[in-house]
């Protein structure tokens, strides 16, 4: 059994792949919170289109191996995996 205390610092270092997943997940959660009428953050159901946009970009980057967020993160100095 491995606990969090047994992991090394290298296993927690940020790289482009992890950053893209974190950002995409954050965008999806935020847009759903802004679009759900039961949410205290509700603004408009049109925010679901942003969720569709994020999903479509994840889909196309999986097929084409090209991701704009990856390019942006490289320019910001995030290390590659």
Structure, explained:
The protein is an all-alpha fold. It has three helices and no strands. It has one domain. It has helices at 16-35, 48-64, 68-75. Helix 1 runs antiparallel to helix 2 and helix 1 (16-35) crosses helix 3 (68-75). The longest helix is centred in the first third of the chain and has 20 residues, at 16-35. The model has no long low-confidence stretch (mean pLDDT 90).
Query: How far apart are the termini?
Result: 26 Å
Rg result = 16 Å
- Element-by-element helix/strand order: HHH
What is the mean pLDDT?
A: 90
Shape: globular
**Helix/strand-derived class?**
mainly alpha
Biggest sheet record: none
Total beta strands = 0
What fraction of the residues are assigned to beta strands by DSSP?
Answer: under 5%
Number of helices: 3
How much helical structure, as a percent, in the residues?
A: 55-70%
Number of domains: 1
pLDDT under 50 segments (min length 5)?
none
Write a concise keyword list for the protein shown above:
81 residues; mainly alpha; 0% strand
Quickly describe the structure.
With 81 residues, the protein is mainly α.
Strand-helix topology:
Layout: H1 16-35, H2 48-64, H3 68-75
Helix pairs in contact: 1-2, 1-3
